[in-house]
Amino acid sequence: MKLFCFGLGYSALATGRWLRRLHGEEFSWAGTVRSVDKGKALADQGITVHLFDGTAPSPTAAADIGAATHLLVSVPPQPPADPVLVHHRADLDAAENLRWLGYFSSVGVYGDAGGAWIDESAQCRPVNPRSKDRLQAEEAWRAYARSRDLPIAVMRLAGIYGPGRSPIDKLRAGTARRVVKEGQVFNRIHVEDIGRIAARAAVALLDGVFNLADDEPAPSQDLVEYAAGLIGAPAPPAVALDEAELSEMARSFYADNKRCSNAAIKQALDIELMYPTYREGLAAIFKRTG
Q1: 244 assigned to some structural domain
Q2: DSSP letters along 83-103, please?
């Protein structure tokens, strides 16, 4: 297996690590980063790294793209079109051994469901521009997969958390907020569950659209309170959303209210989550970090 990742970020790196566990020395790995410093750190881990910021083709990636058997796209869309398809479609066309495509999207493409349970059959009504761009990118990648007669797994990720990116880390850094919007819930997904599921999807050459989400959507303040209890710290004071000073991006996470089913991916891969709720996930982070 030769994996090429456009965007060696948090979730893509977890996926590569799981594939390395599954395939050992039969697995090779290359991908793109936006900065030289990050590239050097990843090269030390045995990953072949290329620079790509989405504004121009990577000057060095063509050969590794062409050699790939599996492609994972984890870079955000840059309107008016997906930057990978804009700048590297010819390189992808030349990848004669390509067997599978994976695309990391977001459950934000569904928009607001008023707190109802939804699955992959729900109509997508994205509200914010980022989610609209994601949906367009999904469609572009599915069209490309059809043109190559390749399977593609579009994985719609819920709110990502894990070591270094959790309420525990924010509490310890003094940046945690307990913002409350009455009745609002959303799903999350631990980064190791993303990596494990995406790796299994790559091995199985999985095709289709799948939610990657936990079993228990919950209000954001519940996670902060639970994390505070784990580390023995006081929870920050509750602040109503209307009164909270949040960035436009942070506020957009509170716009949608939905419960996303993960039944389809569990059935497709005959798999259960390692961290089915935020409680197991945060407890594991606490155990790991002390």
Answers
A1: no
A2: HHHHHHHHHHHT-TT--EEEE
Q: What pLDDT score does 289 carry?
A: 83
pLDDT digits (tens, 9 = 90+) for 112-153: 999 999 999 999 999 889 999 999 999 999 999 999 999 999
- Does residue 172 form part of some domain? no
What are φ and ψ of residue 172, in 5° steps? -70, -30
Under DSSP, the state recorded for 116 is: -
Q: Is residue 282 part of a domain?
A: no
Q: Are 256 and 186 in contact (CB under 8 A)?
A: yes
- d(CA 160, CA 107) in angstroms, rounded, equals 11
Which amino acid type is present at position 127? V
Please, which pLDDT band fits residue 220 given cuts at 50, 70 and 90?
A: very high
Question: Could you tell me the CATH number of the domain that includes residue 128?
Answer: 3.40.50.720
Of 46, 71, 12, nearest in space to 191 by CA: 12
Q: Please state whether beta strands 259-260 and 117-118 pair in parallel, antiparallel, or not at all (unpaired).
A: parallel
